[in-house]
Fold this sequence. Notes:
By secondary structure, the chain is an all-alpha fold. It has five helices and no strands. The chain has one domain. The N and C termini lie far apart (66 Å).
Amino acid sequence: MLRALVRTTALAVLVAGLASPSVALAHCQVPCGIYGDQLRFEQLLEDTKTIAKAQTQLNELLAGGQPTAQSVNQMARWVMTKEEHAGKVQDTMQAYFLAQRIKADSPRYVEQLKAAHAVITSAMKCKQSADAATAEALEKAVFDLYRAYEGKEPEFETDN
């Protein structure tokens, strides 16, 4: 009887876990050495480009005149996309950079901390606005973080 109850409970937990939406975090916080800083920066920039694209699309849809059901649906989707990617930027900053990579004993700690804070607040401003200037400020903040963190100029395909 107990064995059947344990099996049923385990199966219910497994099914609930598979049916529930999950959120992928920036890093598992196990010192595995698999994740790399360069990839995290590239992901931050990819999220920033997605936010900029969403803002552009929102503004174009609004400029189209009288809203239709289709345009309202598309605007809602673009807003959700913008929110999702700004949240991913904040999650990466908090779970990867602040929790694991920016160390208090670094000689550039204060500079790195200020730069990380600028990225997080810039992502927040992207959530609050459809103004393209907020995505531009976020991109600049990511590049500034790279400079503070790596101590050199960024080397990406979309160099700034």
